[in-house]
Amino acid sequence: MIVYWILLLLIAFVAYCIGSVSTLSLGSVFVFHRDLHRIGKKRMFISNFRRLYGYQGFARLLGVELVRDLVPILFGGLLLAIKKHADIGFAFAGFCLVLGRLFPVFNRFRGSSASLCLVCAIMFADLSAGIAALVAVAAVTGLTRYLALGAIAGAAVSLLVTVLMVDDRLLMILCILTAGIVLVKNLPAIPRISQKRELRLSLEEDISYKFDEKF
To answer: In 3D, which of 97, 80, 100, 164 has the Cα closest to residue 129?
Structure first.
């Protein structure tokens, strides 16, 4: 029993810490070899990043985030496979990863919507719930351009599918906690969306910088 708790603590530490690491920081060091934080914030970052790296750059950045999310989940599954509970290891690591993404210790506990992180965490715990979450996140984010709204939809759908289809009680609880915390964390965005104060995802290029150039 002591060994089991030690393994859980190790998984929690690794998954939370990796989840707390910024995708931009990882991309800056390992892929783009440039401090991406200096490109700009919010809308300015998106437009400037697209201007510099194009859609292929976005794909590479998404790849960095995907790897960042998969490593701790796989680590958790492999570690608890020692006790023949790999599925619990996947789910528990996913929950701790989402905690790190939503409340990163390296960024004063101010995180993101955790859409992709949620999908990865639920996907490894239960494939059906993960696919449902992926479809919901992609559809709502694509239609509305609000990342928080996509995260809310993905969390709500995965909650429903988990309750209906996951039989293992502990696995179901972990999935519910993972989706539930994403849902609660992103709910405050709804009033901002209704008041049109929430930033929308846009890949349209900001050309305002050209007005500062000398012709």
So the answer is: 164
